[in-house]
Structures are given as C-alpha cells and as structure tokens.
C-alpha cells in the first residue's frame, strides 16, 4: 500500500513537471517509444546498482561518523534513501534532510552530521575530478569518436591536466588544513568581520570540514573511505554504460571511458546548476552526447532523461514510501531541515568562537 502511495506521489510529480524538461528533441512519447525497444534488463540492472550505490554511501557515512557514536546500517540506509528523495522533490532545499534524519535516528551530534556531509562532498568532488581528468586524458590519447578533433584534443588535454593538478592542490590544502585549520580559524574569528556575511559562511564551511575530519583519524579510516568512494563511482560509471547500451544506435557503441566522461561532465553540469529540471544534469549529458560523441539529438535527449530518472529519481521508489511510513510530509521536512541546519550552524560557529577566545600559545622563550 505504501509502495503504491509512493508511486502515485511520484507520478503526480512527473505530471506536474511534464513540460519542464527543455531539451531539444525531447518528448515523453519518445521516451515511451524508446523504452519499448530498449533492453529493459540493463535498465533494471542499473536501478538495482544505484540502490547498491546508496548502500555504499550509507557504509561510508557510518565510517565517517563512527567516532561520533554508533549508527545502525538500517537507519543510515533508510535515511539516505529518504534524504535523496527529498533532494529530488525539493531541490537544494532538501539537501539538509539527510544529515538531519541520520542524526535523529541514531541520536548523533547535529554539527557532527553536517561536518560529515561537508567531508562527503569533498570526497565526491575529488572523485569527480579524478574521473574527469582520467577520461579527458584517455580521449586525448586515443582520440574522440566521430572525427579527428585536433583543437578539441588540445582542450581535452589541458582540461584533464588542470583537473588533476587542481585535485593534487586541493589534497595538499586539506592535509595542511587538517593540522593547522583550527588555529587559522581561531585567528580569523578574532576579527569581527569574519563572524558575519560571506566570511561567516566560509567559517561555517571550514568549521564543518574540521568537524567532519574527526572521522579520519587513522590511515585505515582514509583507506576504507577511499575504497567506498572508488567502488561507488565505478558502479555509477557502469550504470551510465549500461543505460547507454540499453538503447540502439551510437549509444550502444559507447565505451566505458566514454561513459566515464559523460558521468564526469554531467556531475560538473549538475554542480554548476545549468538550466533544467534535473539541476543541469540532463543538459550536461545531452551536450556531451551530441557535441562530443555525435549522438543524434532525439536519442541523446531520451538517454539524458532516462539517466536522470535512473540515477536521481529512482531512489524515490523506496524513499517516498519510507517517508510516508514514518509520517513525514514535504513541508514538515523542509521546515525541520531549515531549523536544524540553522541550529547546527549556530553550534558550529559557537565552537569556532570558543576556540578563538582561548589564549594563544606564548611565543616567548623560557628564560
């Protein structure tokens, strides 16, 4: 019954936003026709793999937060599905729901959960940079399909090198910040300008990062977290490959390296918030498929939307029934997430201000 209610709610969402997908060559009738000729076994395999990805995210979250207190996998996994469902339905406003639900289910520190959330994003951004750099350098070496693309190859090489260099620089900064970040924040918070405005937001972000770093105390922690992240994104790349191979034509010839490139640039488009109901993911996928891989606009638009449905919307098949089972409404979750996020930010800022008020270590030498 709950599953039926979730499906009805999901159907209502698609009905309401049926005209919001603005991709050239896209029509819902085209999706239905394409699915009729698609390999449904690969699409079902992709949906199952996405749920495994959510399980990996739950395991990674538990590893991040194990120093903050015990957490049960069932609680974290269900909160992960519900949280991503809220992000799908509410957009950016739904993102704080996941850490709030995990904190409430296992009675964990709210600032600690937001710290884990910040660190999770850092790991995912690093993985995306690695994927994009790997894929761009691979195609610079092998050549893109559909033409010589000399200038495009030079751009690909430069972009790949820039991404990899940026990731190395970011890792060096994070290692430095791991040991010296608290002192830097303490000095900055002695200035009133760093307690308000955009500087205050930077302080909150960095304080959350420091809080999240408490979950990485040993090389074993770093190794396990990196393993979960690598397996997760490898599986997502396979999902992109399987969805492409479910359709005939040029899409069926997409290689694993090509699927990795589509995934990486889709993640970048989603982060940049290109216009589109899917937060930019659909638009980025469409542009990569048409401009780089030479896929015709109609199948590219269909594949872009199906990828969005599989990787982003399919969590609602379980997440919405779970939300209904626990008695949550979208309005209640939105208000609760906003309230808890503000409380968590206030507590993080209070911790940073308390550290700033501590006396600085004396630099005078003993006589």
Keywords:
mainly alpha, disordered C terminus, 367 residues, globular, 76% helix
Task: Write up this protein.
Mean pLDDT is 75; it is low at 274-278 and 358-367. The radius of gyration is 22 Å and the shape is globular. It is an all-alpha fold and 367 residues long. The chain contains 14 helices and no strands. It has one domain (36-357).
What's the short version?
The protein is mostly helical.
Q: What general form does the structure show?
A: globular
Strand content: under 5%
Q: What number of structural domains do the residues give?
A: 1
Largest sheet: none
Average pLDDT score? 75
- Give the C-alpha Rg: 22 Å
Number of helices: 14
**SSE-based structural type:** mainly alpha
| Helical residues, percent | over 70%
Strand count: 0
Compile the SSE list and pairings:
Blueprint: H1 2-16, H2 28-37, H3 40-65, H4 73-90, H5 97-106, H6 110-142, H7 150-188, H8 197-212, H9 219-245, H10 256-272, H11 281-292, H12 297-313, H13 316-325, H14 330-357
Helix pairs in contact: 1-13, 2-12, 3-4, 3-6, 3-9, 4-5, 4-13, 5-6, 6-7, 6-8, 6-9, 6-10, 7-8, 7-14, 8-14, 9-10, 9-12, 10-11, 11-12
């Amino acid at each position: 019954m709950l599953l039926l209610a979730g499906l009805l709610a999901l159907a209502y969402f698609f009905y309401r936003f049926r005209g919001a997908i603005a991709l050239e060559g896209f029509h819902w009738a085209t999706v239905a026709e394409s699915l009729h000729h698609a390999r449904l076994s690969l699409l079902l395999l992709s949906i199952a793999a996405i749920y495994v990805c959510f399980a990996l995210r739950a395991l990674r979250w538990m590893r991040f937060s194990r120093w903050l207190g015990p957490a049960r996998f069932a609680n974290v996994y269900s909160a992960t599905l519900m949280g991503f469902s809220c992000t799908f339905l509410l957009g950016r406003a739904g993102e704080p729901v996941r850490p709030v639900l995990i904190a409430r289910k296992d009675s964990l520190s709210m600032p600690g959960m937001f710290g884990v959330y910040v660190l999770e994003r850092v790991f995912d951004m690093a993985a995306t940079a690695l994927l994009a750099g790997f894929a761009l350098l691979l195609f610079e070496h092998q050549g893109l399909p559909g033409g010589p693309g000399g200038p495009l190859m030079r751009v690909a090489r430069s972009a790949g090198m820039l991404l990899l260099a940026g990731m190395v620089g970011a890792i060096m900064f994070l290692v430095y910040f791991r040991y010296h970040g608290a002192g830097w924040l303490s000095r900055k918070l002695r200035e009133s300008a760093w307690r308000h405005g955009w500087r205050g937001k930077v302080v909150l972000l960095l304080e959350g990062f420091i809080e999240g770093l408490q979950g990485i105390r040993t090389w074993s922690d770093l190794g396990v977290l990196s393993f979960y992240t690598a397996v997760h994104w490898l599986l997502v790349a396979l999902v992109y490959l399987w969805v492409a191979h479910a359709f005939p034509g040029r899409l069926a010839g997409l290689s694993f390296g090509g699927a990795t490139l589509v995934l990486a640039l889709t993640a970048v488009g989603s982060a940049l918030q290109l216009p589109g109901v899917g937060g930019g993911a659909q638009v980025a996928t469409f542009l990569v498929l048409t401009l780089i891989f030479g896929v015709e606009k109609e199948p590219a638009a269909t594949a872009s939307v199906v990828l969005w449905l599989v990787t982003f919307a399919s969590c609602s098949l379980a997440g919405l029934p779970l939300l209904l089972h626990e008695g949550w409404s979208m309005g209640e979750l939105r208000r609760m997430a906003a309230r808890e996020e503000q409380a968590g930010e206030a507590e993080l800022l209070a911790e940073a201000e308390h550290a700033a008020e501590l006396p600085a270590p004396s630099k005078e030498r003993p006589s």
